[in-house]
Amino acid sequence: MPSISDCKCVLVIGSTSGIGRALALSILDLPSKPTVIVCGRRKERLEELVATHHATGRLKSVTLDVLSERNALKSSIEEIVDTYPDLDAVLFSSGILRSFDFTRPETIDLDSLECELGTNYTSIVRMITFFLPHLIKLGEQGHPTFLYPVSSGLSIFPAPGIPDYCATKAALHSLSISLAVQLKRKNVHVVEIIPPLVESELHGFQSTTQGLARFWLTLEEYTKETMEGLVRGDSYVPAGTAVERYKKFEEGKLEAAARLYGQS
User: What is the pTM assigned to this prediction?
Assistant: First the structure.
């Protein structure tokens, strides 16, 4: 299977911090020397990132709000494709995490819950839909293209304190399997990235960073392990504790889905 080392131009959505930022910079350092486009809402962070790594000349930035109105989001993606016609890979790392206690239903903030759903799942489905005409066209011309959704080990085994987050990641996990099977014939490769608990700003709102630090994989360790899987061209890229969960509950599911869909 082709791998990220074959990519000429990689867009990393949600790369102003955490996993997205770390993966974007690691992809930039690949020997194949791809162009990397960092993308997110926080323009000042993107500009700082590009300024820090301007020497390569291969790090670009695009400001994008994934929760933009549908037509505005479509227009933004069409502009990205027009600006970067060699774009052959999109990595979706944007996400938010909120806790909800359904034993106290009066405390459930549905606006917050629906924002989490939109950020972690609905917006990604929209963006994939808008990027696919370009990626399919390149694929049919013989150039492999890639979609890299970032789900979570919690998509396999949920944490009850963050039920909506786990549900959004489970939805993305299921979607990734279906798209991997559907798009294989179009030379568009869907590779799901499955992180464990990783050192990240994502968990800061819980005020439990010190406690979580006893369990999470450091960002450096996580990035190294994940990049090894991406370079190998693995169909799934779990890391840390997510590897065991994937092997126990998910291994072979993609192949079974492909057989069901009439693919060997």
Answer: 0.94
